[in-house]
C-alpha cells in the first residue's frame, strides 16, 4: 500500500480552507482531514483487477486520489550522502465533467520536492499546488510524463524506462535519471491493497531504480548516483475513523533485497490486520508479508518545534523468505518533516544489522502525528 | 540597605496619595499604550479584510491588449524556470478575468481567478478570513460581495446559469462576484483565452522593517515606501521584452487600498504620539516621585547612606511601582480599547474584529511601564543632582533645533518623501514647539520679575516659571496633546466642510433610482409618466483599463447642468473626460492632458473630488461611448421633480412608494438619505481619530496633575510663610487657580500655532500625498477653540483637584 493514498485523499480537505493556508494556519493532521469518506460518484477499488501497462502509468481520473511517488538515496562523487523525494498527487474535486473547459478545475495536482543533504544536516522542501492543465500539471502514460509547474518526471524509453527528474527550488536544481533494475511489483493481492474494511487502493511499485545525474545545491553541483524507488497508487478510499495515521518503510539493502512494510496506527492501539508488506529478493522475486510476518517498533523520537514527537529510529523485525532478521532503521537526519499543506515526516533512513553494521538505505514516512 | 527599605516603606505608608497618583499616572500611560495598540490592530485587521479577496497578497497587476492564457503560461514557465521562481522577486502569479454579468435582473462585476495560484493570506488575516471554499475552487459556486445582498447557499442566476453562493466577501461595499477562472470564462462567454490581468506578488524588500514597525505600532509601516510600477522585464528578465509590459501596483488600481494604507498610517502616527506622551508621563512620575522624596534622601545621605545606595533604593521602589502599574494599565487598557472601538463602530452591521492581547503587546506594555519607570528613575536621579533652572544652550546643543527645522523643510518641500516625509515634518514641527517651551518659561521668568499687576497673579506666575524642571515635561505633553487636538480637529472639520460641499453639488437630483438592470427601460417609461417627474437623467458604468489602471467609466448626458455637479463649466464634448482627483494624480495627468480609453484619445476637461472611491473614476458624455466601441447599458436614473413636487418635508415620498410597489427590486434613495448616510460614514471614519486625540489629552491631564501636585508640595514652605503673614484661604486658592491658568495658558500658547501648522500640513501635504485629494484648510472656531478650552480646563481641573495631604510627605517637604 501506500499511505500516500491517504495523504492524497486528504489534499482536498486543506484545499477547502485553501491557498497557502498552510503558511498561516496550524499544521493539518491527516486523521483530522480524513474524517469522512465522501467518494460519491467516484470509482472505488473493490477487488483485484488486471493491470494494463503502460496505460496504468497514467492517471485514473475516475478515482478520486492518485500519486506518483519517487524517492532515492544518493551518493555524491565525493562521498556526500543525499536523499531525494519527488511526489505528484492528483486529487479530483468532483467526478469528471462531461465537457471540461480549458480552465477546468476538476483535477488538482500537488507536488512535493525534498532534498536531504546529510553532510550539511539540512532537509529542504518545496511545494506546488495547481489545477490540472496541459501547461500547468498533468500526467500522460505513453510516453510517460508527469509534470507540475516547472517540475517534470519524463520517461525517454517505453513504460517507465529512463525517467528523468528535472526540478528546481530555491538554490537547488535536480537533474537525475532513473532506470528500473528490477521488474515492477504488484503490492497486496495482485495490486489490490486493502487498508481497512471499506478502504483499498490499486498499488504497484518499481522497487529498485538505478539513479544517476546531477544535484546542484547553492553554487555547488554534485554528480550523484544511487538507488531509487517509485510507487504508484490510486483509490477513492480514505482512512477509517479507527485509524489515525501510518508508518511506512521502503528499505533497499546493499545485498539487493528491497522491503516495503507499513503499519496502520489504530486509535485503540491494536495491531491493524490490514498491515502488509513485500519482500523483493535480489532477483526480483516478490514475497508478500502479512501483519504477522513483521513488527515495527519505535526506538527513539525526535520532538519538533511544535512539540510533536516523531519516531525516527525503529527496530524492524521481519520473518522473510530467508528467515528472521532484525534491523535498526535510523533517520539520516532527525528533522525531515514536510511542513507543507499536510504536515508529515518523510526522509532518508539508514539500515543497520544487529551487529550495528550499515547494510542499506531507504525512506520512512510518518503521518498522523502531532 | 535595611534602613533604606524601611524608609521607603515608611514613605509609602505616610504618602499613600503620592503613591496612588504615581501608580495611576503610570497605569494610565500603560493603559493608553495598550488601548491605542489594540485599536490600531483592530482597524488594521478590518481594513485587511475589506480588501478585494482576489487581490489579497498581490502587489502588482499586469494588463494590456493581447494578454491571454498563452502569455500567462509563458511568463509562469519563465518564473518557475528561474531556480523554481526563487531567482526572481516574484512569489506568486495569478491569472484574472473580469467582466460585467447580469445577475438577478441587475449588473454586477464578475472576477474570475485561479485561486490555487494565489499567494498565502496576509498575516493580518491569518484567522482564515481569506479561505476560499472548495466549491468555488471547483467552479461550482460563487462568492458574493456583501453589497449584493445574496444569501449564502441560495441559488442565483448569473447570465442565465443557476449557481449557488458559497459565501460573502469582506468588503461590504463590493458589488462583485468572485468565481473560479474557468467558471468566469464560461459565464462571460470568453472563448479566446483572453485575460483581464495577471496578478503578481512581488517580494517586498521592506517586509522585515514593516513587520518590526507594525509590532511597535500597528499601521505605522504604511509610511514606508509603497510598491512602484515596474517593467515586467525587471521581474522576469528577458520575458516579452519587446512588449514593454508594465506591472502596476495594486494600490494604484484600487484607491481604497491607498486610502486604507493612509488611514492606517494616520492611526499609527497618532498611536505613536500617544506612546510618546505616555512615556513622557511615566518619566515625569519618576521625576516627581523623586522630588517628593528629596528631603528624606537628603537626611539619609547626611546619615551616611551613599548616593549609589539611594539610587538603588529609588530604582527598586520605582520598579515595584512599574510592575503594579503595568498590570493595572493592561487591565484598564483592554476594556478601554473595547469601549472606544464600540464607540467608533456603533450602528455598523458587522461586528468589529476581536481585540487580541498578544505577547508582543504585553512586552510593549511592560517595556513602557516597567522599562520607562526604571530608566526614568535613573535619569531622574541623575537629573536631581544637577542645578535647577534653564540653562542656555551651548555647543552642539545650539545645533539640535536645526534637525527638526530640516525635517520640516524636507518633509514638506520634497514631494517624493511621501506620507512619511509629511509626518516627519509634523514631528519636526512638534519638536520645534517643544524646544520653545524652556525659552518660553525663561522669558516668562524674566517677565515675572518686571511685570506689575495683582501680586497674587505675579506670585502664581513666579511659581510656574521658577521651577521649569517640575513643569517642563508636563507642559510639553499638554501642549502636544492640545496641538494634536487642534490639528486633527481642523483637518477633520475642513475635510467635512469640503465633503459636505461636494455632496451638495453632487446630489442635485430629487430621487436616485439604481439597480435597474433589465428593468431599466420599464422603470424609465413608468417614471416618465408620473406627474411629479419633470425630467430623468440616465447613467451607467463600464469597467475599463487606462494605462493598466482599472477605471470605472461613468457615462450620462453631460449637459451644463450635469457637468456642474462635478465642478465643470459647460457641457462635456464627446472627446472630453472628467477624472476623479485621485485617478488624475495616479495617471499623472491634469486638465488639458489626454488619456487613452479603448484606443480612443480623450482630453481631460477637469477633475472632481472622488473621496473614498473604490476604483478610480472617469466620466464621459454618453455620446462618447459608441466611439469607444461600447454599448450603452444604463443602470440608474436620477429623477428631477417639478418645483411643486420637490417641496415639502418628504419630497417625492409618495412617488417612491408607488415605484417600489411596481418595481420592488430597484433601490431608491433620496438626496437627503444619501447625504445623511455619507456624512454618518464620514463621522464614523474619524470617530476613532477623535477618540485617540482625547485619550492623549487625558494622559496629558494626569501628567499636569502630577506636575502641579509636585509644584504645590514644593511651594508648601512659601505658602506656610504667607499664611503666617496673613494670607487667607481664599487668596491661597486664587493663587492655585491662577497658577493653573498660567500653566494652561503657556500650553495653549505653544499649542495653537503648532496645531494650525499641523492642520495645514495634514490638509495640504498629507492628504494629497496619501489619498490623492486636496482639502482647503478652514479655520472654524470650534475646530481650534474646543481643544484649547479642553487644554485650559484640563490644567484648571488638575489644579483644583485636592492636593495630597500626607503628613510624612508634607513634613519632609517642609
Question: Could you explain how this protein is built, in words?
Answer:
Chain A is built from 4 helices and 23 strands. Chain A has 370 residues and is mainly β. In chain A, strands 1, 2, 3, 4, 5, 6, 7, 8, 9, 10, 11, 12 and 13 form a 13-stranded antiparallel beta sheet that branches. Chain B has a 10-stranded mixed beta sheet with strand order 5-6-4-7-3-2-8-1-10-9. In chain B, strands 15-16-14-17-13-12-18-11-19 form a 9-stranded mixed beta sheet. In chain B, strand 5 and strand 6 form a beta hairpin.
β-sheet strand percentage of chain A:
over 45%
| Radius of gyration of chain B, in angstroms, nearest whole number | 32 Å
The computed structural class of chain A is mainly beta
> Quick one: biggest sheet of chain A?
13 strands, antiparallel
> Whole-Å distance between the termini of chain A?
23 Å
* Range of strand content of chain B: 5-15%
What number is the mean pLDDT of chain A? Answer: 87
Order of helices and strands of chain A: HHHHEEEEEEEEEEEEEEEEEEEEEEE
Looking at the chains present, what oligomeric state does this protein adopt?
heterodimer
Low-confidence spans of chain A: pLDDT under 50, at least 5 residues? 1-36
**Total beta-strand segments of chain B:** 19
Looking at this protein, list some descriptive labels.
heterodimer; A: 370 residues; mainly beta; 13-stranded antiparallel sheet; 4 helices; 5% helix; globular; disordered N terminus; B: 814 residues; alpha+beta; ten-stranded mixed sheet; 25 helices; 19 strands; elongated; disordered C terminus
Task: Write the topology of this structure.
The complex is a heterodimer of chains A (370) and B (814).
Chain A: H1 4-9, H2 12-16, H3 21-24, H4 30-33, E1 65-76, E2 81-92, E3 107-117, E4 122-131, E5 137-140, E6 145-148, E7 151-155, E8 163-169, E9 172-180, E10 185-186, E11 192-194, E12 200-217, E13 220-235, E14 243-253, E15 258-266, E16 276-280, E17 286-290, E18 294-303, E19 309-320, E20 323-331, E21 337-339, E22 343-352, E23 358-366
Antiparallel strand pairs in A: 1-2, 1-13, 2-3, 3-4, 5-6, 6-7, 7-8, 8-9, 9-12, 10-12, 11-12, 12-13, 14-15, 14-23, 15-16, 16-17, 18-19, 19-20, 20-22, 21-22, 22-23
Chain B: H1 2-14, H2 16-49, E1 60-62, H3 69-81, E2 90-103, E3 106-113, H4 134-137, E4 141-145, E5 155-158, E6 161-169, E7 176-180, H5 181-187, E8 197-202, H6 207-216, E9 230-231, H7 232-235, E10 246-249, H8 250-253, H9 255-302, H10 307-345, H11 359-384, H12 402-413, H13 418-435, H14 437-450, H15 455-465, H16 468-506, E11 511-514, H17 520-528, E12 533-546, E13 549-556, H18 560-564, E14 576-580, H19 581-587, E15 594-597, E16 600-608, E17 616-621, E18 636-641, H20 643-646, H21 653-662, E19 667-669, H22 671-724, H23 729-770, H24 781-800, H25 807-813
Parallel strand pairs in B: 3-7, 4-6, 13-17, 14-16
Antiparallel strand pairs in B: 1-8, 1-10, 2-3, 2-8, 4-7, 5-6, 9-10, 11-18, 11-19, 12-13, 12-18, 14-17, 15-16
Helix pairs in contact in B: 2-9, 2-10, 2-11, 2-22, 9-10, 9-11, 9-16, 9-22, 10-11, 10-22, 12-13, 13-23, 14-15, 14-16, 15-23, 16-22, 16-23, 16-24, 22-23, 22-24, 23-24
Amino acid at each position: 500500500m501506500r499511505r500516500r493514498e491517504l495523504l492524497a485523499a486528504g489534499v482536498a480537505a486543506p484545499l477547502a480552507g485553501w491557498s497557502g493556508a498552510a503558511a498561516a494556519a496550524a499544521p493539518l493532521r491527516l486523521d483530522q482531514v480524513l474524517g469522512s469518506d465522501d467518494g460519491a460518484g467516484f470509482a472505488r477499488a473493490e477487488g483485484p483487477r488486471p493491470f494494463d501497462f503502460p496505460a496504468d502509468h497514467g492517471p485514473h481520473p475516475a478515482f478520486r486520489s492518485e500519486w506518483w511517488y519517487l524517492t532515492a538515496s544518493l551518493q555524491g562523487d565525493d562521498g556526500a550522502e543525499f536523499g531525494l523525494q519527488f511526489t505528484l498527487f492528483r486529487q479530483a474535486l468532483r467526478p469528471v465533467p462531461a465537457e471540461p473547459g480549458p480552465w477546468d478545475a476538476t483535477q488538482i495536482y500537488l507536488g512535493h520536492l525534498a532534498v536531504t543533504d546529510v553532510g550539511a544536516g539540512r532537509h529542504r522542501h518545496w511545494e506546488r499546488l495547481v489545477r490540472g492543465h496541459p501547461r500547468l500539471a498533468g500526467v500522460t502514460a505513453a510516453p510517460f510524463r508527469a509534470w507540475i509547474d516547472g517540475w517534470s518526471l519524463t520517461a525517454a524509453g517505453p513504460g517507465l524506462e529512463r525517467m528523468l527528474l528535472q526540478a528546481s527550488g530555491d538554490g537547488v536544481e535536480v537533474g537525475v535519471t532513473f532506470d528500473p533494475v528490477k521488474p515492477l511489483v504488484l503490492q497486496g493481492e495482485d495490486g489490490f491493497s486493502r487498508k481497512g474494511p471499506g478502504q483499498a487502493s490499486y498499488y504497484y511499485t518499481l522497487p529498485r531504480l538505478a539513479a544517476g545525474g546531477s544535484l546542484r545545491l547553492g553554487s555547488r553541483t554534485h554528480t550523484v548516483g544511487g538507488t531509487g524507488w517509485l510507487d504508484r497508487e490510486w483509490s477513492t478510499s480514505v482512512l477509517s475513523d479507527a485509524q489515525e495515521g501510518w508508518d511506512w518503510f521502503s528499505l533497499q539493502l546493499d545485498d539487493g533485497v528491497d522491503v516495503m512494510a507499513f503499519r496502520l496506527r489504530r486509535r485503540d492501539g491494536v495491531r491493524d490486520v490490514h498491515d502488509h508488506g513485500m519482500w523483493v529478493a535480489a532477483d526480483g522475486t516478490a514475497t508478500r508479508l502479512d501483519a504477522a510476518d513483521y513488527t515495527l517498533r519505535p526506538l527513539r523520537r525526535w520532538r519538533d518545534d511544535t512539540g510533536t514527537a516523531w519516531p525516527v529510529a525503529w527496530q524492524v523485525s521481519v520473518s522473510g523468505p530467508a528467515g528472521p532478521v532484525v534491523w535498526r532503521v535510523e533517520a539520516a537526519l532527525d528533522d525531515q518533516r514536510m511542513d507543507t499543506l499536510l504536515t508529515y515526516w518523510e526522509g532518508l533512513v539508514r539500515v543497520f544489522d544487529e551487529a550495528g553494521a550499515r547494510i542499506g538505505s531507504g525512506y520512512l514516512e510518518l503521518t498522523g502525528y502531532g | 540597605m535595611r534602613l533604606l527599605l524601611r524608609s521607603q516603606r515608611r514613605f509609602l505608608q505616610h504618602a499613600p496619595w503620592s503613591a496612588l497618583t504615581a501608580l495611576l499616572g503610570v497605569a494610565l500611560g500603560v493603559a493608553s499604550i495598550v488601548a491605542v495598540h489594540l485599536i490600531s490592530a483592530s482597524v488594521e485587521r478590518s481594513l485587511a479584510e475589506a480588501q478585494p479577496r482576489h487581490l489579497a497578497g498581490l502587489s502588482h497587476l499586469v494588463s494590456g491588449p493581447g494578454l491571454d492564457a498563452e502569455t500567462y503560461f509563458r511568463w509562469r514557465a519563465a518564473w518557475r524556470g528561474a531556480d523554481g521562481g526563487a531567482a526572481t522577486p516574484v512569489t506568486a502569479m495569478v491569472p484574472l478575468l473580469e467582466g460585467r454579468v447580469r445577475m438577478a435582473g441587475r449588473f454586477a462585476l464578475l472576477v474570475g481567478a485561479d485561486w490555487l495560484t494565489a499567494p498565502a493570506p496576509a498575516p493580518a488575516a491569518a484567522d482564515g478570513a481569506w479561505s476560499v471554499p472548495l466549491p468555488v475552487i471547483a467552479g461550482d459556486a460563487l462568492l458574493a460581495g456583501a453589497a449584493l445582498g445574496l444569501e449564502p447557499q441560495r441559488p442565483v442566476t448569473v447570465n442565465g446559469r443557476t449557481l449557488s453562493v458559497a459565501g460573502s466577501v469582506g468588503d461590504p461595499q463590493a458589488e462583485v462576484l468572485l468565481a473560479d477562472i474557468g467558471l468566469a470564462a464560461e459565464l462571460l462567454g470568453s472563448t479566446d483565452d483572453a485575460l483581464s490581468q495577471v496578478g503578481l506578488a512581488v517580494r517586498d524588500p521592506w517586509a522585515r522593517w514593516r513587520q518590526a514597525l507594525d509590532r511597535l505600532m500597528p499601521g505605522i509601516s504604511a509610511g514606508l515606501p509603497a510598491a512602484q510600477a515596474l517593467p515586467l522585464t525587471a521581474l522576469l528578465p528577458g520575458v516579452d521584452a519587446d512588449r514593454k509590459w508594465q506591472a502596476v501596483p495594486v494600490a494604484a488600481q484600487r484607491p481604497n487600498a491607498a486610502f486604507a494604507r493612509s488611514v492606517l498610517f494616520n492611526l499609527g502616527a497618532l498611536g505613536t504620539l500617544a506612546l510618546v506622551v505616555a512615556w513622557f508621563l511615566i518619566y515625569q512620575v519618576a521625576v516627581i516621585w523623586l522630588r517628593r522624596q528629596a528631603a528624606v534622601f537628603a537626611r539619609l545621605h547626611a546619615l551616611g547612606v551613599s548616593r549609589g545606595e539611594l539610587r538603588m533604593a529609588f530604582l527598586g521602589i520605582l520598579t515595584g511601582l512599574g510592575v503594579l502599574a503595568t498590570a493595572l494599565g493592561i487591565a484598564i487598557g483592554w476594556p478601554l480599547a473595547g469601549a472606544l472601538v464600540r464607540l467608533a463602530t456603533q450602528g455598523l452591521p458587522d461586528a468589529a474584529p476581536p481585540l487580541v492581547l498578544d505577547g508582543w503587546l504585553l512586552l510593549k506594555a511592560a517595556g513602557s511601564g516597567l522599562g520607562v519607570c526604571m530608566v526614568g528613575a535613573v535619569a531622574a536621579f541623575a537629573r536631581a543632582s544637577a542645578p535647577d533652572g534653564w540653562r542656555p544652550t551651548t555647543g552642539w546643543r545650539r545645533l539640535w533645533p536645526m534637525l527638526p527645522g530640516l525635517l520640516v523643510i524636507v518633509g514638506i518641500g520634497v514631494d517624493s518623501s511621501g506620507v512619511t516625509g509629511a509626518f516627519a515634518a509634523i514631528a519636526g514641527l512638534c519638536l520645534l514647539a517643544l524646544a520653545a517651551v524652556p525659552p518660553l518659561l525663561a522669558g516668562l521668568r524674566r517677565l515675572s520679575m518686571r511685570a506689575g499687576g495683582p501680586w497674587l497673579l505675579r506670585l502664581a506666575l513666579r511659581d510656574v516659571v521658577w521651577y521649569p524642571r517640575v513643569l517642563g515635561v508636563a507642559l510639553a505633553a499638554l501642549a502636544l496633546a492640545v496641538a494634536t487636538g487642534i490639528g486633527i480637529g481642523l483637518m477633520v472639520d475642513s475635510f467635512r466642510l469640503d465633503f459636505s460641499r461636494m455632496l451638495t453639488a453632487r446630489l442635485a437630483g430629487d430621487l436616485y433610482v439604481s439597480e435597474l438592470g433589465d428593468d431599466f427601460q420599464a422603470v424609465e417609461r413608468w417614471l416618465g409618466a408620473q406627474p411629479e417627474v419633470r425630467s430623468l437623467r440616465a447613467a451607467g458604468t463600464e469597467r475599463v483599463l487606462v494605462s493598466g489602471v482599472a477605471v470605472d467609466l461613468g457615462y450620462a448626458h453631460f449637459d451644463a447642468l450635469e457637468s456642474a455637479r462635478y465642478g465643470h463649466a459647460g457641457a462635456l464634448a464627446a472627446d472630453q473626460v472628467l477624472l476623479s482627483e485621485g485617478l488624475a494624480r495616479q495617471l499623472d495627468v491634469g486638465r488639458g492632458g489626454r488619456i487613452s480609453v479603448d484606443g480612443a484619445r480623450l482630453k481631460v476637461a477637469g477633475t472632481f473630488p472622488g473621496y473614498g472611491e473604490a476604483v478610480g473614476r472617469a466620466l464621459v458624455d454618453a455620446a462618447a461611448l459608441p466611439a469607444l466601441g461600447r454599448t450603452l447599458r444604463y443602470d440608474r436614473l436620477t429623477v428631477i421633480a417639478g418645483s411643486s413636487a420637490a417641496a415639502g418635508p418628504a419630497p417625492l415620498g409618495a412617488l417612491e412608494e408607488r415605484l417600489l410597489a411596481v418595481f420592488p427590486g430597484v433601490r431608491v434613495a433620496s438626496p437627503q438619505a444619501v447625504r445623511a448616510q455619507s456624512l454618518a460614514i464620514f463621522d464614523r471614519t474619524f470617530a476613532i481619530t477623535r477618540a485617540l486625540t482625547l485619550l492623549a489629552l487625558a494622559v496629558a491631564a494626569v501628567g499636569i496633575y502630577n506636575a502641579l501636585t509636585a509644584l504645590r508640595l514644593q511651594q508648601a514652605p512659601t505658602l506656610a510663610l504667607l499664611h503666617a503673614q496673613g494670607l487667607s484661604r481664599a487668596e491661597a486658592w486664587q493663587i492655585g487657580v491662577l497658577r493653573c491658568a498660567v500653566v494652561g495658558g503657556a500650553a495653549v500658547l505653544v499649542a495653537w500655532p503648532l496645531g494650525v501648522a499641523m492642520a495645514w500640513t495634514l490638509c495640504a501635504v498629507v492628504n494629497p500625498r496619501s489619498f490623492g485629494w486636496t482639502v482647503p484648510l478652514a479655520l472654524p472656531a470650534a475646530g481650534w477653540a474646543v481643544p484649547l478650552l479642553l487644554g485650559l480646563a484640563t490644567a484648571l481641573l488638575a489644579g483644583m483637584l485636592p492636593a495630597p495631604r500626607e503628613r510624612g510627605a508634607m513634613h519632609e517637604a517642609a
